[in-house]
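Weekly modeling sync, notes
Attendees: S.R. (lead), two postdocs, one rotation student

Agenda item 3: backlog of single-chain predictions. S.R. asked that every request posted to the team notebook include the full sequence so nobody has to chase files. The rotation student volunteered to paste the first one in as an example of the format we agreed on. Action items at the bottom.

Example entry:
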Amino acid sequence: MGRYRREVTDLCIDADDVRRAAQTIAGDIVHTPTSPSKTLSLLTGVDVFVKFENLQFTASFKDRGAANKLRGLDEVQRDAGVIAVSAGNHAQGVAYHAGRLGIPATIVMPTSAPFTKVGHTEALGATVIQEGATFSEAVTVAERVALERHLTWVHPYDDPAVIAGQGTVAVELLTDVADIDTILIPTGGGGLLAGIATYARAVSPEIEIVGVQSEVYPGMVAALAGRSLEVTSTDTLADGIAVKTPGTRTVPIVRALVDDVITVPEAAIERSVSMFLEIEKTVAEGAGAVGLAALLEHPDRWRGRRVALVLSGGNIDTRVLASVLMRELVHSGRITSLRIAVPDLPGKLAPIVTALAAVGANVIEIDHRRLFDPISARSTNVDVVIETRDRHHAAAAKAAIQAAGYRVEPNPI
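Predicted structure, as returned to the notebook:
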């Protein structure tokens, strides 16, 4: 029995609910592939399989829970419409499936929600109300609107129909790939983890089920320990699972059926987003990449096992993605910035460029710094940004410049 598994008591759903959900939404969602990754397997020493939920229409597993909840509404509820609070994937999932089914949808989004997400939600046919500076304030607005207009709540994770819908990920995964030993699951409010655990534990009792969170936002870890989360920073790349208070329905399921919930550092999440794009040629948002981050952080824990990663979504801001990719090039030593002390005389730059060319380093930028650095008026600092194969190649480039007679330091900026 794992760290969190307890005797099963009265839980809000069972495996049959997940099976029925799979039948109910079969025509509404994409049966996403679960594919082996030879390269990730070689890198981690684990037999890796990736469940590509970023291939849903709205690029997130949230399509599943929204579709199942909406399919279960009666005629009165459908006519009146639904309401949800979200600044991201849940908003788009509800908007998309409500539009398909002809159900009026109202989405309350905080005023801080990115313009692109507001625009995407409106484009899918929902009415967007932007009120409240924070998510909690947006919930208060939504509660008022729901009462005034008699709208049905579609909760992002703490609803039996939503949990069962999210659990259909496991129905597909365990049908498509045999003998999975472990499933690593992104965890915020717990809907996806609870749904997968409900089905997987029933059909494969010995399978290891592990939730993964950012160490910046370990809401489920705190809830399982019986304490409230004290957030010291809200700055996480895994914003899709940055949930302070998990569900009252999901926590008991996780406590009863899940083996462990672990956290991973932000640096590992960044690296995983980059690796998914570079290796699998697929876009993962930060939340979707935490399973791979867990493998990178704990390579010995699952070595030699068959491990499924649920890539839960791919909705990442393009500017953030660009920053992540460039930062990974720096971290891996493929882009390096050097500061070189140079006499401020004609011809002194040429030997530097020649030395770099001789070792096959590519010069991306050169910047002379004469005015603001504390150096002699007869000298200049030259900041050079170079592209190399890896850290060893970067070190060779630095050594070549030093051999040409120059003092070289890492760029302090």
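Discussion: group reviewed the output briefly. The chain has a mean pLDDT of 91.
Action items: rotation student to repeat for the remaining queue; S.R. to check formatting next week.
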